[in-house]
Amino acid sequence: YWIEYRKVGGSWIRLPYPVSTCCSFTVKYLNNGTTYEFRVRSTNLAGTSSPSNTDTARPMPPLPKPPANLRALARDGDVQLSWTASPTPGVYYNVYQRDASLNGWWEKLPYPVSKTSMTAGYLANGHYYNFKVTAINAAGESASTNIVTALPQWANGTTRAAAVTSSWILADYGQFDPIQRYDMTATVRGTRNGDYIQVDGHWHTNNDKRLLSGIFWYLVIDCTEGYTVMHRTLEYPTGGPTSGNLTFYYTRNPQRMYKVQVWGVGEITYSGGIYGRFARSPSRGIIPFITETPCF
What we know:
By secondary structure, this protein is mainly beta. About 0% of the residues lie in helices and about 50% in strands. Strands 9, 10, 12, 13 and 14 form a five-stranded antiparallel β-sheet that branches. Strands 18, 19, 21, 22 and 23 form a five-stranded antiparallel β-sheet that branches. The protein has a four-stranded antiparallel β-sheet with strand order 2-1-3-6, with no helix packed on it. The N and C termini lie far apart (about 75 Å).
């Protein structure tokens, strides 16, 4: 028997030697994923017959075995991923990610990866992300690796700052005139370094006003849980300062995100008399004086 084959649409190729046994044979060294046509002719000393019917087949590799041991290293705005290769040769890898903080859906990254590492970028700092990896070839897609979780954060030395000017008291608050906007400004700066945050707080009055008395609260708040984990106060019981500063450190959990708030309460003077108050808690129409850094 002569066995003939070709790629669909190509020219027929006859195997170099006839097959003497009936009625099966394995044609090797074909390209996986390519569709071939096959036919058979019988032959003897009298000659060669017409071809048989034509049939098609598409050789495929085995379904890939999954990669393993996925690892993640979170950085500033991205996550480095690495994994152990699939035992199946000649595979590519699909990487899937989801924003766990937003309870998001799994999303496949647009391009497969040929190596056993990659960097997932353009991630939101302060969000937890899940990752998994599968192997793919012409036969299909494997099961996934283990799922890993990573929390991108701002790099060491990153400073997040915010500033706010005073709100006002409603005009019917007793004998006090309202504090106008821009009468007082407060700022807060948080700098992330390794396992601690350095907090630098500052306030100053504007328009020649002086602080008669006042207290400022600087609060470190866990972004995930929403509760205060540390606070410091800056108090001015007497005198007439126009500015003040406060610096302190908070030993942080490197796997958590934090923000810093500043609140104030007190009295300021203007033209020799009490002009108004700003307050920590809304009361009798008082609008609180507050600012905070973003989570970092």
